[in-house]
Structure formats: structure tokens, C-alpha cells
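Question (not urgent): is this output format expected?
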Amino acid sequence: MGEGDVLVDASGSLTFEQVRSKFDAGEGQPILPQRIMPTGGGSAIWYRLALPAVGEPTPLMLTVPHPNMDSVDLYRPAAGQWQLERSGDQLAVAQWPVRHLTPAFELLLQPGETRPTYLRVTHNYPISVPWQLADRQSFHEQSKESHLLLGVYIGLVLLIAMMSALHAVSWRDSIHLFFAFYVLVVAAGQLALTGLGGEFLWPGSAWWNDSAPVALTLTTAALLHLFLRQMVVDRDAPWLTRGLLAMTLIGAGILTAFLFIGNKSSFNLATPYYVGSMAVYLSVAGWYVWRRPMVGTWVLAAMVCLTVGSIFPILRTQGLLPLGVATQYGAQIGAALEIPLLLVALYLRSREKRDNQARVGALTRADPLTGVGNHRVLLQRLDSLLMRQVRDPGAGAVVRVRLSNAIEIRQDYGMETAQSAVVQAGACITSVAQEGDTVARHRDGDFVLVLQGHLTREQLTDIGQRLIARGLSESPALPPNTVLQLKVVIAEAPFQLADATLLLQSLGAVLGELAGRSGTALRFVSGPQGSNGVNGSNGSNGASGADTRNAPAAAQEQSAEV
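Got this back:
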């Protein structure tokens, strides 16, 4: 920053000649770079700049690197007169002398120039005005760096918005779409705060360039309340959702007043709202950590970054801190950290939601005790196998298995041990199943193994024997000397019944008769007999011998339900 004097025009009504007279009378004070000037309330700050002496015509760039300045007027000596150039938000950026992020002027210093240059600045809150002087090359190099960094930042934000929109479709969760909209508003607000929006998006609108920083920041703050409400909604905490909705409506009210009543008169309402919002964000995030630690921790981290980053610009608007990296770019840095953290939180939230839905979906298809398929799955797979047998009569087989001593185990050791026995029985049956086979549980408690492929009588016999043998092996999950007495009935292809329910009933009828016999554990069923179409074929060696007797047609299903 160059040297010179500064003078405060509290009324903002002094003319240029009056200000010159006051400077000439010695009423100006030396410029202090970090001094916060009492702008706002209609006052104006005048600077008399002492530009360097040059030996030849020298082009220089004068900049005021503070975005969103209300007005910056430059008075330069030219041919014995004073030339006025104007910049700032009260003028469309397209009409600025230099179209740039912040007010800038191109100077041509002449050798022997003796008259000073004057700068008049107005703003709606106290600020420091660190005007800078640089050669053209340095100015353009710095401008390129600033635009590159801001471009990278905006590109990152837009990428996150696109990812969120895709997540809304892939996760089938509308909160991601809301987040994408919020991110876009944040990006628009950062464009306005940095001056990039005025330079490229709305260069012809002075009103919007002046209003956009506050309007979009208010919109962002209000939307974040609404986003948190959507994210942490809880039927057990209606007060929280109502409170967040109230904060959103308050923000909308201040925004309406700002835009339609007058941005200067309602500007003072914005700062208390920002401060209150920060407190609400942190409180809600802290509560959310208590309710859902994994997701809530990321939300809290995002709110901390946003709060820390935003507090510096707020302190600057209150005249408590001078312009600097933290006060000028704190909000951008905070938002740059906040948005990815919220994206992670949303990902974890949606993953938890998907896992919960998967578990709920599994409950509709799995037996809650054993984890194998339930009766509904069983009927679906049997219907599919029966349809396949229309084309390929020799395909598949159905094995129905009953834990015949379940009642005895329950009587001797209690319900908990009986349930463990059923789980162990399900594990025994699952162990002999191969890829493509289905293990399910009938509604009466029996297990059913639906086998795919073409299986011979010898292969089916081996499967049945292995099932029975596994049941007779002791398990650490059961009391000592406790074994599972499994009764097995096998229907080999082609089935004589073309209905899944009737096929299961026929197998159950044979099991009912087989369960009452000692020394017999395995039987094949392959043809109709009597009214129910049940026929016993030649059996094969079971756990304790062979049984070739036919099952009576009137045999009733008997099962031990656990």
C-alpha cells in the first residue's frame, strides 16, 4: 500500500473541491494500512494518494482488493483538469474502467507530476481499504492466479453438485438432490462474494451485483437449516424440526426485507441471523452426534469448519478485524471444507439407510430364526422348478427334513436350547447345498432343500445320508450327548404333482408317518397313490437301516414347531 492521507466525510456530502481544501488545510491523517475506517451510515472515506515519481510515462494499476465495495471513485489530474473514473457495486461491472474481481484503475504516471490523486470510497459497514499499486504485468499475473484458484474452487463445487444429483438417482434418496441445490446456491454465493459473479455472470446489473453477496448468503444460511431439518428429522424430536423450519422462515423474512424494503435498512438484521444460525448449526450437529455417531461426527465437523470460516468475515463486517486472508476468504475456505464433509455424511447416511432397507427386505424373504429362505421363498423356488420340469422332466429334486426330536430337546433343556437345535439343523442342511440350490423353511417348521440339476438315486441317497449323519454329530452349540434326529423324505424327478403346495403336503404326510417310526430316517417318494397321490418307493439305507414300506395316503403332517 502506498503513502498518503485519509479524511473521513461523516455526512458523505462533501464535494471534491471541499475535500481538497480540507486536505490542503492539513485536516487529513496519515494512512494506516490496517486501520478500520468508519464507513457505513452514509459516510465516505477520502484518500489523497502520494504516487511515486517517475522519469518517463509509466503505466500502473491501482486496485482496491476488496470485493463488494459500494463505490470507489478516482480523481486524476489530466490536462489541467480533474478526470473522474468510477467503480464499485453502485455501477454495473461492465461500466467499470477495468473489468475485474474488485475495483481497479489503469494509471499513466507522467514525469514531474506534482498533483496528487484522490480516491473516494463508500461502503455499508466499516472496513480497511488496502489500496495497492502495481505494474501491469504483476497485476495480470496476480489476476490469473486469483481466477485460477476461484475456478478450481467453483469446479470442485459443481462436481460435488453433479455427484449429489447422481446419488439422488442411484440411492433413491431425495436429500441428495436437495444437497445438490444447496451446493449450487453456495457456489453462487461464493461467486458473488469474490466478485467473480459480477465479472462474468451479471456484469450488466448493478443492483444485483450490490445485493447478491448478502442475498445469496442469507439464502444459503436459510437452506442449511432446511437441509439439516431434512437430514436429522426425528419423530421423537418434533421440536427440533419445528425449530429448524422456524429459522428457515426467519431467514426468508430477512431476505425479503433486504430485497424489497431496502438492503441498507435491513442489512443489520443479517449479522444477528448469521450468528444465531451458527449456534443452531453446532447445537443440532452435536445432538445428531449423540443420536447417530457415525454420520453425526461428519456433520459436526462440517458445521465447525463453516462456523470457524464464517466468523472472521462477520467480525470484519462489525469493524473488529481488518481485511486479510481470513476475513476476506474465510467463508470460501469454510465452505470448501464443509461441502465435502457433508457429502461424506450423506454417503454414510444413505449407506445406513440402504443397509436397513436390505435388512428389512431380508426379513420378508428369510426365516428369522435360521436365516434360510422363508415359506414364501420356498413356494417361489418350487414353482420355478415345476415350470422347468415341463420342459425338462428329469431336472431337480425336493428334500423335506424334519427335526423329529425337537420336542424332546425343548422339554429337557428349554426353549433356548431347542431354538439352537433348529438353527443347527438348518446349518446341517445348508452344508450339503450347492450353488443354485435353495434351503428354506416350511411354515410348520420343517426344512426343505430344493435341488437343481439332474440327480441320480445314488446321489440323492448320499445327500440324505450325509444330512442324517451331520445331525447325529455332536455340536458345541448343544448340550453334551445331544444329537439331532433328522427325518428325510426325498421327491425325485419327475414329480407326479404339478403344484408346489400339494407336493409339500405329500412330503409332509410321509414325514408324519416316518417320524413315528424308530430306526427309519430316509424315504423316497416318486408316485401317486390313493387320494393324495403319495407313494413310497424302494428306500435306501438311512441312518439306521432301510425302509421299503409305502406311506399310507391318510398320513397326517406332524411337526415340532420351534
